[in-house]
Amino acid sequence: MAAVKVFPEDVDRKLNEVFTRYGYDGTSMEMLSQASGLKKASLYHRFPGGKKDMAAHILKKTETWFQEHVNSVLHDEGRSMSDRLTEALDAIRFLFEDGTRNCTLRMLSACSETPYFQETIRSCFNILQDAFSFIAKGNGMSESEAAGKSMQAIINIQGSLVLSRAMDNQEIFKASVAAIPELLGVPK
Amino acid sequence: MAAVKVFPEDVDRKLNEVFTRYGYDGTSMEMLSQASGLKKASLYHRFPGGKKDMAAHILKKTETWFQEHVNSVLHDEGRSMSDRLTEALDAIRFLFEDGTRNCTLRMLSACSETPYFQETIRSCFNILQDAFSFIAKGNGMSESEAAGKSMQAIINIQGSLVLSRAMDNQEIFKASVAAIPELLGVPK
DNA sequence: GTCTATAGCTTGATAGAC
DNA sequence: GTCTATCAAGCTATAGAC
User: Fold this and answer.
1) CATH no. for residue B47?
2) pLDDT digit of tens for each residue in chain A (188 aa)?
3) Nearest DNA or RNA nucleotide to A42 (CA to C1')
4) Per-residue CA distances from B23 to A23, A73, A109, B10, B82 (Å)
C-alpha cells in the first residue's frame, strides 16, 4: 500500500474520537490504527510511548481547547457577559455533540493509566472553574459564591452528560447547559 | 491448593469492587480471580458467560440495592420526609464512600459491552428518579417540577462524583449530597 | 515517515482430573 | 464445585526494508 501523508490534526481528531468513545482500556492499537489510517508502526513513530502517549497528547489538546474556546472567550472584555457565555456554552454543546458524545476527560479519568493523566485532567477542570467563576464574579457574586456556582456548572455538565447517555435522552444535557447562565447570575 | 468454599456474597462484593474501580475493559479475568479468591475456571462455573455475565450480575445486585436502600426507604410512609431522605442519602454516601469510590453504573455505562448492560443501568437511574420524585411531590411540588428537581439530584450525585475524584477533593461530593434535601423541598 | 512482519506476552475461554 | 493445564486469539511493542 502507498505511504500517504496523513495530517497530524486529522490523526489527533480520530484518536480523540476513539479514546472518547471506547475509553482508554477499551481502545486497542489496532482500533487507533484503523481510525487514523496509519499503521501501528507509524503511530509508534509519531508517539514513541504508544497508547499512553497518544492519550496524553489528546488530553493536552483538550486542555488547549478549553483554554481557547471557554476561558479566553469568557475573559474577552470587549463584549457583554451574556454574549461571551453564549459563545462558550455553544462551544461546549458542539464539543459534546448536544449530549450524544462522551467527555474525554471523564473517559480518561478512570482507567489503568489515570495517574499518568490526572494532572492534565485536573488542569482542564481548573480552567473551566476559573472561567465560570470569572463570569459569576463579574455578575456581582462574592469569591466563594462564584466558586460554588462555577463548580455547580461543571457538575451540571458532567452529570447531565452521564445521564443523557445512560438514559438515551439528550434533552437532559441541553436543559442543564441552558440553565448555566442563570446559575452564574447573568441578567436575563 | 485446597478447594475452599467461598460465599457468593463475598464473591459478588469483590467482583463489584474490581469492576467499579477499573471499569469493564480495565478488568481482566485474572484480576477477578485474584480478588475473589476463585480460579478462573471456577468463576466460569458460576458465571458461564464469563466477564459479561459477572458484570451483568453485579449490576442486577446494584439495582436491588437502590430499590432497597433508596426507593423503599423514601416510600416508607411511617416516618417524616426528612428522616427518610436522611437515611437514603446516608446510604448513598456509604455506597460511594463519601466520594472516594466510583459509581458502578457510570463505570459500566461506557464500555465495549454497554449495549448488554444498558437496560439495567437505565432501570437503576429510573428507580432513583422515581424515589427522589416521590419525596419532592410529597413536599408539594408539581409532577413536572418534581421530575426536574429529582433529575437534578441525580445529576448532582453523578457530576460531583466525577469531579471529586478528578480533583481529588471529596468535599465536592459531600456538599452536593448535602444540598439535596433543600433541592427536593424538604422543610428545614 | 510509512510500511510488512513478527516477537513476546496477556487475554478470555475450555477440557478434564479430583 | 474447584482445580491445573492449556489453547487460540488479541494485545503492545519492535526490527528492519523502502
Assistant:
1) 1.10.357.10
2) 445 678 899 999 999 999 999 999 999 999 999 999 999 999 999 999 999 999 999 999 999 999 999 999 999 999 999 999 999 999 999 999 999 999 999 999 999 999 999 999 999 999 999 999 999 999 999 999 999 999 999 999 999 999 999 999 999 999 999 999 999 999 87
3) C2
4) 10, 35, 11, 19, 35
Residues 11-40/B with CB within 7 Å of nucleic chain C are 27-31, 40
B24, B113 contact by CB (below 8 A): yes
In chain A, where do the E strands start and end? none
Please indicate, yes or no, if residue A55 is contained in any of the structural domains: yes
Q: Which long-range contacts (CB under 8 A, 24 or more apart) does A69-76 make?
A: A69/A95, A70/A127, A70/A128, A70/A131, A71/A127, A71/A128, A71/A130, A71/A131, A74/A131, A74/A132, A74/A134, A74/A135, A75/A131, A75/A134
In a domain, B188, yes or no: no
Domain count, chain B: 1
- Give the three cell numbers for residue A89: 456554552
CA angle (A44, A45, A46) in 5-degree steps: 90
Range of B151's domain?
Answer: 8-183
Residue the block writes with cell 501523508: A5
The closest of B157, B154, B138, B137 to B146, measured between CA atoms, is B137
* Phi, then psi, of B97 in degrees rounded to 5: 50, 50
* Any domain includes A2: no
CB contact under 8 A, B23 and A22: no
CA dist B172 and B167 (Å) reads 9
A25 touches chain B (CB under 8 A): yes
Residue A151 contacts B where some CB pair is shorter than 8 Å: yes
Q: Say if A127 falls within a structural domain.
A: yes
